[in-house]
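Quick entry, no commentary yet.
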Amino acid sequence: MLEAFILITILCGFFGTIFKKNLVMKIMSMDVMSTGVVAYYVWVASRTGFFTPILVGEVNDNTKYADPVPQAVILTAIVIGFSIQALMLVGVMKLGKNNPTLESSEIEKNNTP
């Protein structure tokens, strides 16, 4: 069931990126898609176990631990995604100074020679 919600989140972001005309909405859709991808990787990393691999006291061989490597990679992906989103929003702000609208079709019409 969780897989279905994650897939729906990714698809909503993907279709929002394609079908929305407003540039800010496109950026937000890309953020929703990125969140779905991050959730998918966290879900895959937690399939093997739910406990953190920190050994304290008695060690039980039957305990299944979550793999910490995908979690570290995902933390890096979140930071990179945030910086890319901020950079895109700055680009939209620069476009907004020169154009009265943020609709992509209107910007293309105004800037076509």
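second:
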Amino acid sequence: MVRKLSKADKKIAYDAKLCQLLDDFSQVLVVAADNVGSNQLQNIRSGLRGDSVILMGKNTMMKRSVRMHSEKTGNEAYLSLIPLLVGNVGLIFTKGDLKEVREEVAKYKVGAPARVGLVAPVDVVVPPGNTGLDPSQTSFFQVLNIPTKINKGTVEIITPVELIQKGDKVGSSEAALLAKLGIRPFSYGLVVTSVYDNGSVFDPMVLDLTEDDLVDKFASGVSELTSLALAVHYPAIAAAPHMLINSYKNVLALAVEAIFYSFPLAEKVKKYLDDQEPDVHMAMYDD
């Protein structure tokens, strides 16, 4: 007879598993798991099998295990995970490419109906067209101020209607209407909220950056640094070429105006200006 594990045994086993994962993996995706069913989660586990492991659990237990493991190993980098363990979240430990893992997780979103009291994650728009409902169902549309007409014995929606806005709670009338129309407006899955990589924590939007984006941002930063250095006359490396050119322009302007001072490069400019003088006088005469 197999002995059933007690709560204490389960906690010990969970702690050991989490600590082992922290030792084996240096990359973690923190994911929100709201409205994700067990079957859906199992499919995600199967899709990630190979170089990633999903671990769910109570936040208090995860925080405790992370904190104790950090104290035991002396690795304080793990503590960066603790502030991220808020709400219904889970951890995906991975050795794969973070962007590819996130994209794989996103494939397993499933459609869901609009249940009463649920906060809408997106805008819900009812499209125009024939609903297939008989005229006795027009009361639903009237309550929600949806313009309709009767066409061939069925209710037809005339124009697109924004039924629910993102962030609003779904009402009973909206839920009943969407159910009658067979519309499942929402989709749910694991959503990456934060990324942990070797002690660093950053927003998942960083994973979308390309090399060109990084080059553009670096160039923008250098440009701002150069502008600041020039404004305060500080000889930063990025501003040095501009400072030299500006200084050269000042010296050149002085040499051109001065009679008894010159240098080789200034002589070339003076000669060019002297050659242009007749044309300048002719243009003034023509005007």
